[in-house]
Amino acid sequence: MTNNRDEIMWGSTRISYVYSYSKRKTRGLRVYPDLSVVVSTPFDTDIEKIRDFVRRRGEWIVKAQQQFDLHLPKLPPRQYISGETHRYLGRQYRLKIEQGLENSVKCLRGYLLITTKASPKATAAKALLVKWYRLHAATVFAERLRFCHAKAKRLGIPLPHVNIRLMVSRWGSFSLSGRITLNLALIKAPKECIDYVIMHELCHFKEKHHGPRFWGLMTQLMPDYKAKRDKLNYYVE
Ligand SMILES: [Zn+2]
């Protein structure tokens, strides 16, 4: 079975897809988490019929892609207790929560040591850890933005304002007012994954939708973006 590439215009949005012929009598269409659109169709289908089929589902496809865009998988809640594993920049650390003279978080060899003045409780540990993540995210994200923007500016992409916020379902988002929002949880992923999300949002300044032009920009600015994107899903916790 070979995959053929094609694209259609749905309004002003270009939708690119691959299609393959199958023995089945009915046509099928799927949108995958990497935003690709895949059509399977009976052997004798005319290309114009396939295009009609995709065009009729244009609205649904664009909505599905928006849902998947930088999507964050749902995971069980963390407990913030000693022994639990948490990540920072892609590395795993075991939590060690103890009572001490002042509130602090220290990143030691293999450990995140959380010291609380009050008796160690999960809620206090969580608050301290989130604060610590926020502090480091501000520095790391700013550094990665400078790194990514140094490449993107050659294409006339402006330096955006960045908000950092804990988001439940997305790694990042872009607003046409020139702002990007990064999920605080991204500080748990390796720097190259942070770079992927930042570059992805920077490319949205030029291309709102995820058509071939968007992925062309990504390839130009970050030739190995696919590997980084795949890694991001692996590093979520
Ligand atoms: Zn996007």
Explain what the structure shows.
With 237 residues, this protein is an alpha/beta fold. The protein folds into two domains: 4-68, no CATH class; 85-235, Zincin-like (2-Layer Sandwich), CATH 3.30.2010. It contains six helices and eleven strands. The strands form three sheets. The protein has a four-stranded mixed beta sheet. Strands 5-6-8-7 form a four-stranded mixed beta sheet, with helices on one face. Helix 3 crosses helix 4 (191-203) and helix 4 crosses helix 6. The longest helix is centred in the middle third of the chain and has 31 residues, at 122-152. It is elongated and about 75 Å long. The chain starts with a strand and ends with a helix. The structure holds zinc ion.
Task: Describe the secondary structure blueprint for this structure.
Elements: E1 4-10, E2 13-22, E3 28-31, E4 37-42, H1 47-56, H2 58-68, E5 85-88, E6 91-99, E7 104-108, E8 111-116, H3 122-152, E9 161-165, E10 172-175, E11 179-183, H4 191-203, H5 212-221, H6 225-235
Parallel strand pairs: 2-4, 6-8, 9-11
Antiparallel strand pairs: 1-2, 3-4, 5-6, 7-8, 10-11
Helix pairs in contact: 3-4, 4-6
Q: Strands of the largest sheet, in order across it?
A: 1-2-4-3
Architecture per CATH nomenclature, i.e. the level-2 architecture of the largest domain: 2-Layer Sandwich
What helical percentage do the residues reach?
25-40%
Strand elements, count: 11
Q: Can you say what the CATH homologous superfamily of the largest domain is?
A: Metalloproteases ("zincins"), catalytic domain
Bound molecules: zinc ion
**How would a crystallographer describe the biggest sheet?**
4 strands, mixed
- Total domains: 2
Question: What does the average pLDDT come to?
Answer: 90
Q: Determine the CATH topology of the largest domain.
A: Zincin-like
Instruction: State the order of secondary-structure elements, H for helix, E for strand.
Output: EEEEHHEEEEHEEEHHH
Strand content: 25-35%
Shape: elongated
Rg value: 22 Å
Count of helical regions: 6
CATH class annotation of the largest domain? Alpha Beta
| Uncertain spans | none
| Structural category | alpha/beta
Distance between the termini: 36 Å
